[in-house]
Structures
1.
Amino acid sequence: MSDKPVSDHRASDISRRRLIGTAGAAGAAGLVLGATGGATVYAAAGPGAAPDGKALTSVGSTAVPFHGAHQAGITTPLQARGHLVAFDLAPGAGRKEAAALLRRWSEAARRMTAGRPPADAGGDTGVALDAGPSSLTVTFGFGRTFFGRTGLDARRPAALDPLPDFSSDHLDPRRSDGDLWVQIGADDALVAFHALRAIQKEAGEAARVRWQMNGFNRSPGATAHPMTTRNLMGQIDGTGNPKPSESDFDRRVFVPADGGAEGPEWMAGGSYAVVRRIRMLLDDWEKLARGDQEKVIGRRKSDGAPLTGGTETTELDLDKAGPDGKPVIPANAHARISAPEQNGGAAMLRRPFSYHDGIGADGTPDAGLLFICWQADPLRGFVPVQRKLDRGDALSPFVRHEASGLFAVPGGARDGEYVGQRLLEG
Amino acid sequence: MSDKPVSDHRASDISRRRLIGTAGAAGAAGLVLGATGGATVYAAAGPGAAPDGKALTSVGSTAVPFHGAHQAGITTPLQARGHLVAFDLAPGAGRKEAAALLRRWSEAARRMTAGRPPADAGGDTGVALDAGPSSLTVTFGFGRTFFGRTGLDARRPAALDPLPDFSSDHLDPRRSDGDLWVQIGADDALVAFHALRAIQKEAGEAARVRWQMNGFNRSPGATAHPMTTRNLMGQIDGTGNPKPSESDFDRRVFVPADGGAEGPEWMAGGSYAVVRRIRMLLDDWEKLARGDQEKVIGRRKSDGAPLTGGTETTELDLDKAGPDGKPVIPANAHARISAPEQNGGAAMLRRPFSYHDGIGADGTPDAGLLFICWQADPLRGFVPVQRKLDRGDALSPFVRHEASGLFAVPGGARDGEYVGQRLLEG
Ligand code: HEM
Ligand code: HEM
């Protein structure tokens, strides 16, 4: 089954987008314009019946399979609502408790992503009732500290070594790191909240919430532009992402099936997530004229096309000079210095949520990007690019990195398996 | 043009719901099963063309007219995303500056609700680009303190007298009240955020943000149950609301066209909004067994039907006793003691957003209801009901009122008029 996002074509409406996903999953090659992470549509056109017999429309009835080579929530199309939550193992909890926890979590996720309550026994909050799975995904990751607490130091991937410090960091340790990390995404805010509470409840005595953040993207059907989203600076965001159609997509994003050089073996099919809460200094940003904002990125705001012309998908012409002899895309433009060609091929799959937590203590909007990027190895993805950006990104004066995390996200669970089983029982 | 919500029928999918609204607006009586606040659909089935020529799907392309007898955002179907923001006039700003501000705000709202940028001159953030209006509404109200600051005390409605204290109040004054109040709702989070920033920008030097809150409801299409939403306790919420089909709906919700006894005249067609940020003590609530949760409200969680049987729309049988001789719907059940029959006919239109701001300082979820209720007179709506609830609501141990506001929301602006003009220039 294909497990790629619809990031390389434009579907002109959401139900067509979802339908294409189904067709793709069913293997009807002629229709595979771009698959949607293997989404299943219970009822694509108009109301239909979900497993519980309730009539649903296509947004609610779309389900993203829990099982697969990779965990869901990495190449799944951006969802309208997201929750990030990090946990620390409780004092006294070790490998055994962690294994039981991952087993409970996987089971709850498997059920909820199919539109069912998290457990057979009662006690469900009911918050998701009436809606279908709404493209719910629940993705689990391990932080560096998890391995010491569970006596698994020997299996800790080198890729989890702490990120270097960057000069622009203003990191709040209380909202950074964590033994365990869960990313929840859904196209309905109540479905997402329901999953968050269920995951918290299943943590039981084994783990305690360390930090928790909320985010959002466009609602399905609000735009005919499903390929990329806009961020709160108003830019189209996601254009330069690696495309599933590119031959090196898997190699860049996922640890190879045999563990590969990146290893360890239990990470086969997995990926490393770098999570940064990046505040946008919107009061300052919005004072810039649109032309100056566009020079900061190197792309037009209206349609995301490079300042050197064309459409959103046209390559940047980094050598082109303007009448004044200066490069049209400035030397410090964000899209120039973050591009793989400028970073020895370093690339990552950015899959963010925007966040907005009202007004901050300083009176400015507490809003920005829950930047999440996925790569087979952070040292060939986030790290070199952020190092470069840190030295000379025109965007830097308008953003502030306020929290950071790095998590090893194992491959998808096979039928009957739980996420992380190969680590915890291997 | 009809200006009623779809709260008295079940549309089985969102585009049918929207379509019915359009038909209603066009006056095709046979199709008026329930109008949607006069929503206009640029393209109901599949992609179409919005005013800017972009293809849009039905969620994005739905527009709620700004002009009308009443402001939009009162009987408009619940939107997926909401922002509440209160402003205080800046020191030195008086009636003249307030009139200019309401003129600017109305113009920005009129444009944005039609899917256009807030002003012709540049400087738009671009955050809403690619999406249509997405059912955006922007609703303006005046707080009690507005009238003293603008020398308009003589026109201050008696209905704005401070709400009484309630024993369960834990109100934070920094997040309560305000000279001016703006409610923003949209089915897309970026469209809503865009409108919030535009409204803040247009405030210019005339007014400063006092507080700001974010909320949400179901996404369009996530459920086939458009009549009511669920709240974060998992209950169907909105069932007992006055129905537009009832003969006293207008009288209960809106100040009469001639000002009526409620007066003053400038409030003709207006309504009073009571806004309460009500924290839910979810860690405690979720420990209750489902049966006990249902007794707290008097309705079933699964489908909202009364514990005395039937379906969601069946009347509560308040006299029915169980085998133990006790009333099936307990004496302190929330739906019993808040019902109009128990409160001398007092009724209000509840139109809330849920909120979730992560984890609070006390480690429990900072989540609950942005309770907003609309009535022609708070003394015949919110006040008597909340007095009763305050004395004996079974829900009280699970909620905490953390902020409060009361605002006079004038009638809708006529073409060429701005909201509040009859107050400020009358
Ligand atoms: C709030 C912070 C940020 C904003 C608003 C932002 C915005 C953008 C925008 C508008 C683009 C151009 C469109 C696109 O290709 O998506 C872009 C490209 C990109 N950004 Fe960022 N970005 C931010 C932070 C970062 C960070 C922290 C990294 C990694 C360290 C990063 C890496 C990239 C990469 C790799 C590209 C694609 C370049 C290419 O190959 O064309 N960005 N970003
Ligand atoms: C977080 C706080 C609250 C929650 C969770 C809540 C929940 C509910 C629920 C589940 C119902 C039954 C379904 C329905 O008719 O909508 C209901 C009914 C009602 N509630 Fe609340 N409520 C809250 C606060 C309030 C407040 C503060 C008031 C007014 C002072 C209020 C007034 C009403 C009214 C008038 C009804 C309808 C009763 C009827 O006529 O059947 N509620 N509420």
Note: Chain B touches chain A through 70 residues (CB under 8 Å).
2.
Amino acid sequence: MRAQCLEMSIPNGSTYRIYLSRGLLDGVGEKTASLVAGRKALIVSDANVAPHYLERVCGSFARGGFEVAHEVVAAGEASKCLENASRLWDACARCGLGRDGVVVALGGGVVGDLAGFVAATWLRGVACVQVPTTLLAMVDSSIGGKTALDIDAGKNLVGAFAQPVLVACDFETLATLPEAEWANGFAEIAKSAVIEGGGFYEWLAAHAEGLRGRDYTVVQGAVARSLVFKGRVVAADEREGGVRECLNYGHTFAHALEAAAGLGTVSHGRAVAEGMRFAARLGTEAAGVTESFVAQQAALLDALGLRALDAAWPADELFARMAFDKKARGGMLRFVFATAPGIWQTMTVDADLVKIHLILWEQGVG
Amino acid sequence: MRAQCLEMSIPNGSTYRIYLSRGLLDGVGEKTASLVAGRKALIVSDANVAPHYLERVCGSFARGGFEVAHEVVAAGEASKCLENASRLWDACARCGLGRDGVVVALGGGVVGDLAGFVAATWLRGVACVQVPTTLLAMVDSSIGGKTALDIDAGKNLVGAFAQPVLVACDFETLATLPEAEWANGFAEIAKSAVIEGGGFYEWLAAHAEGLRGRDYTVVQGAVARSLVFKGRVVAADEREGGVRECLNYGHTFAHALEAAAGLGTVSHGRAVAEGMRFAARLGTEAAGVTESFVAQQAALLDALGLRALDAAWPADELFARMAFDKKARGGMLRFVFATAPGIWQTMTVDADLVKIHLILWEQGVG
């Protein structure tokens, strides 16, 4: 497995680099030193990740000439809150982090979103380096520039668009990754491959067993392909609304399921995989999806260990969650449908048809 | 006095309009209707402004087809806090304000900054309409795209850059403006004229008495000239760091004075005017400012009723505040100097020289 570096473009003309390799933690500070003028860094991590990797990252930034401060938040989605943002802003003030300073997110998606939002809003925006330590964060939240906090009314309702100056995916950090987190990453990779189609889909179908078996060469290949896909989508549409909508494939259902089941009961990855299955079946009536594609996608998800869920939740509750999400965001009840690998569309779907399919799903027949 | 409309450009290529007139409150909703796709509006105001104008603005948005919600915060700088931002985000959620919705800031700079930040971060950014009701907000905070909150560590430390979609300056709202607020606006206008120089400076020197006497034709002229000046600066440098630094003329001293005196003891306008006088005197040693310019600027400020302060605060305390500001922002002890109307530069100044001038100022001899 050799090191890779991907260059990501964003619509305003600037670019940033994503490094893919093992052992990057020990060099990320030096790499950052050439990108920012200041020499103050605040490193943000969580209680799961910090014991394993915080010291190495702090050491790397110190070697890069930085005066380093760090903050460790509790692990888990509940940390993506206003109270932690406030605490991190205070930490920025304490260490005198100026406009030329840098905030480093060392952790999964929660840390990435939280630290990314703090960087985007401290002094109206300072540099952010993302060091994702979960497979999902590597392929998803660490790029695209979406940062966010959760509030009582819902997840990700408060946030900012802000691109990182550098992303360092160190595959060594996956050694300590729990089982459910692997599934989260696999689902995101599967979603990307279905939307992208072509070579990526075929490659993943051929390498699903290797990925599931955590062959690191395959893992890196999957991450790189996912990033190239996502980078292209984001470059075309930095702010959501256009082609970027494709990234929500499986998510209308997944968000409702996660909310109905209670946060943490069903992992995001399992929920997205289930949402992809649901969208495909709904699409057979709503968008001309073929039974053959439903089966093809199911086989890919199965091969990645993302089996269909055994338990179901009440259809009316899921529908109410979808309707709430729709209201909270002022949008329509929209779904992304893939009709074949690489061919997708978004459609507003009749509420009654969605209800029927939720009932079929609850009964285990749809 | 006839209505005016200024078109402001921002670096990303988009533009927005600033309307200057009397009676705009009754039409701002209809004007907004053509700019945003959604029909939900959250109108934010404060307890001083709301009793006078909130109903008219709500009515205008209702006539524009909007479903209108409103929130009223306490008047004063203390309202620019995280707690109020949180309350407003909750209000956005309650009224189902989607990506196509709009947040309206009806009030002075505090409401503009607070509501502007909430708009910039709700769903990662929704449209914001600024309806400034103070002279200072009209010429300053309502344009430029700087939004912010205060935290314990300092003012404006948390924020975002986000341009409004529309600014409506209704001069009728100035009828209820307190004396100190007029001074705030005059100081900002004087600062702009000194930095811009040329026609603006000469016009203001000739019309200072009319402005001080609140001749509305002169007020509109001063606002329009200030906006054209500021719009050009912002267009050249949306994010602070380059030419936009000129807008900080008088502010290094003013921030320290306001902090040392205790918020609200010396108005921002008086502090900025005093800061311009201080910068000019410091500049005679640091930047080649002539005694003739010191006197010329003093005469302009006097004509606007912005007399030199009678009371002084301890030099060492002011210096400590400047040093703290420097530390919190990670920058240098920098001053903007004007050597003549229209000619300015920023310079890093030797700390001892600043101290000496603060002592002279404290003793009333410098």
Note: Chain A has 13 helices and eleven strands.
3.
Amino acid sequence: MANDSTDRIVADLRRWIATAPPGARVPSNRELMARHGASPVTVQKAMRTLVALGLVDSRPGVGTFVRGIRPPRPVDYAWQTSALGAAQSRLLGLPSAQRAPSPDAIALHAGYPDRELLPERLVRSAIARAARTDAAATRSPVAGAPDLQAWFAAELASAAPAGVTPPAARDVLILSGSQSGLSSIFRALVGPGQPLLIESPTYWGAILAATQANVRLVPVASGPDGPDLDDVDRAFEQTGARAFYVQPTYANPTGAQWSAERGRAVLDIARRHGAFLVEDDWAHDLAIDTDPRPIAAFDDDGHVIYLRSLTKSVSPALRVAAVTARGPARERILADRAAESMYVSGLLQAASLDVVTQPAWRTHLRSVREQLRARRDVLVSSLAEHAPLAHLEHVPRGGLNLWLRLPGDTDVEGFVRACEGRGVIVADGAEWFPAEASAPHIRLNYSGPSPERYPEAARVIAEELDRAL
Amino acid sequence: MANDSTDRIVADLRRWIATAPPGARVPSNRELMARHGASPVTVQKAMRTLVALGLVDSRPGVGTFVRGIRPPRPVDYAWQTSALGAAQSRLLGLPSAQRAPSPDAIALHAGYPDRELLPERLVRSAIARAARTDAAATRSPVAGAPDLQAWFAAELASAAPAGVTPPAARDVLILSGSQSGLSSIFRALVGPGQPLLIESPTYWGAILAATQANVRLVPVASGPDGPDLDDVDRAFEQTGARAFYVQPTYANPTGAQWSAERGRAVLDIARRHGAFLVEDDWAHDLAIDTDPRPIAAFDDDGHVIYLRSLTKSVSPALRVAAVTARGPARERILADRAAESMYVSGLLQAASLDVVTQPAWRTHLRSVREQLRARRDVLVSSLAEHAPLAHLEHVPRGGLNLWLRLPGDTDVEGFVRACEGRGVIVADGAEWFPAEASAPHIRLNYSGPSPERYPEAARVIAEELDRAL
């Protein structure tokens, strides 16, 4: 139905309808054809869209009229108060990474890369091809499309050293985005009231999913080299936790990449405590200076639950991720996914597999690496020049974020608001802490639009930081 | 990447690789071109797919070889036993409606309509169009695409009588399938350990979602006219439940359609008890003899939580549904969806809206109505002729299923197995009961493939029923 001129006529009429009185006559098709230089077919399509949206009524032979909107009655849903009871406050309200910025602001708060970092042409043609396959007309198996399962398994197997049996295709479960995977893992492997070790700071989406699953969060401090091994051991020992959620590669927000030795040491600790390591490899396709080497590649006895997503590197419209898990853990997660959502659209799976098996995908990844490097370096040097008070704890070797510590007595909320007032949107670091923030921080994402304005953003940050102190 | 001849070559080589020893040389591109009459580009694409799937290694200038598969080590995940603890048995194992039938069986067990009942051509072109829009490259808002929210709201508003304020577009939350909606509603509005009234029998997916949410199920018997009003009132009274899950229109499995009076009476009871009515209008687009009239259309104080899905009527690949809720209930459900999955692919939303706003969509719905009528009538008359012992409680006026009561002492499990052995797959009615089945039943779906074989299926059912008694 949609083509550009239909869309334009619909948009134009919607603006007009918004201020027109109910019952007003919509311009005739003939008038609209003349005004927009459009064909009869195009104008008819636009009118049918407006009818379908309930904005106008068409009376054949008479004309088309703005729909009489019933006067809204003042409503009060007070009765719901006691039906619903108290809410988990952490679940309500959008985190800053999800907010839509005003179009002329410098958006350093987002969690998703700008369009120019995505393989848009590849994605569009992959979708068009998938539309012609059976994937557009049939149901996917609950665990996912076998070919896509095999691709995720092969990716992990390619990093496995000799002597380690890599996961098989059937160990891979396809998800509609890794957030769904986090929710299922925490529900299925931890459960209400049970302890879950979690890095602090860490990804707010994981904190949110864990909160929703009513697990008991046990924060473990983590820095540029990952968590302290004695801390991890002690936390398992003292709480009896059976799972630890970690981001060993380009952690969000800190950018930390653990050494291979640290990764294996943490895996050994988890083994000793009969526990799972939930490895969220969110930035696998967003490397800059190093290459990712998942801990999961060193595991062959089912201790690592491995999450990988394509949403951030392929397209936000192809919401596809995978969790790899072995043994009974796989069955538990699969059962939770079946109860939660039955299956993932096969269309999205087919299009995603098409993209990542194209030769152009490798080319694209190399180009993203260079773009991220350039963006990161401009933001780092702009901040070093203009805002030395914002202390960069660690230059990330991959991922999308800088994690900056502010002077001890900064009012971060006020500072973030003041920056926003001047058109620079930054994220309050408090959102990444499962408990109180250990120090004032902000997170700056260098994958948003307008990298050429980073120096300007750094100057605003510096000025508002001076003012906040 | 995918086109028919590439796919054929890949499939052919995969079969060969499955039995070839590791290190075996794959036929040269020249040989493959000759064997398949394919172009060099096509053959190269096939080889790249096999490399990407990890099945072969390509050594430039030497050849392509079957990948050395590491010998699988016997593994035992016994350590997970105590890490995971006991499981909720209801969550494990696939219900029969989700099982894939053998291709030559007569499949009367499925929950999804056959391809010939779906608007496949419309769907394919809608996806292709959506691939060219912004929906393929951007993130959808958490609550859904505004135009699709508006369409769902307009659908409900068109059924609202004068004097009732219909829900607005913002009251509609877009979901990836109604199963996700059930899970969120039960988590967000009922919660662990709290009572939920539920019709008995009812949709197994709702029972599954409620089990996953750890709510306490309170079954209320429901027949061809819906539940008894005194039963409903008493169940609210005795349990203090704040929600009742219902399918008032072409209920699954019974096919019941409540009268308008019954619907309003149940709504009044819910109002008196300060409770929600969760109305699952799953078969809105699958009417035969009557038209659906949602109870939600009569509600303007936020008592009805209204679920509607497009998965069964548009395409199983376009997993799109909507929940309409007003007041704080909307905020709770939205917060749960954000924590569970962030947002729904905008591509699926754009393609779905495109389909349902095409004039051909209305034509398609009329044709589906006639096809369902014919299929239902053939199955009803075949059973009446051949299998009078299978008692049809009610000829459904819409939906996809016949609900048959078997003689009191039938061993349903054995009967279902025996039918399957003879190539007729039927579903054991026990799966639709939240507790013990009140009597032996089977459910027969008349929207699967091969309706011309219904008389044959009825004869098999009759013979095996005789044998089971």
Note: Chain A touches chain B through 114 residues (CB under 8 Å).
